[in-house]
Amino acid sequence: MKSKLKLTQTETSLDLSPPKGLEENLHPLFLELANHLADLGLFLEADKLMLVNYCRTQVLLDEALSVAGREGSVVVSPHGMKTHPAITAAATLTTNLTKMGSLLGIGAAARKRISVEAAQASRSATTTANPWAIEK
Predict the structure, then answer these.
(1) CA 72 to chain centre
(2) Alpha carbon separation from 78 to 8, 71, 81 (Å, rounded)
(3) Which residues of 72-89 are buried (b: 16+ CB within 10 A; e: fewer)?
(4) pLDDT score, position 77
(5) At 74, which helix (H) or strand (E)?
(6) pLDDT score recorded for residue 22
(7) Can you list the residues of the chain whose pLDDT is less than 70?
């Protein structure tokens, strides 16, 4: 049984090109993810902005990890040693990527959740409003 949340073939013929204003270096990532999600039937035109934010967050995470790799994970301040701000930023960015990815359907857990929700929606559409009703 196919998920009701997946798009039909005609709906997947949407414009997957990167939106205007998206940084040139993000185009390959955007195209890769947009095509992948469209192939799975999980991408709508309305998802473009979130995908743009996902791509930008991914680049920021890469930069934060690069800085932490160059400078180390600890910095010395007048108050002693503390975690490098890039490590703190990387943790926050990872959390944000996970949340956005889940909403977009990126990752196995997100796809499983989407298929379960679709199955529940399909079941509830075929059941009667009264759970105690006897079907004839």
Answers:
(1) 29
(2) 60, 18, 8
(3) eeeeeeeeeeeebebbeb
(4) 87
(5) strand 74-77
(6) 93
(7) 1-13, 118, 122, 124-136
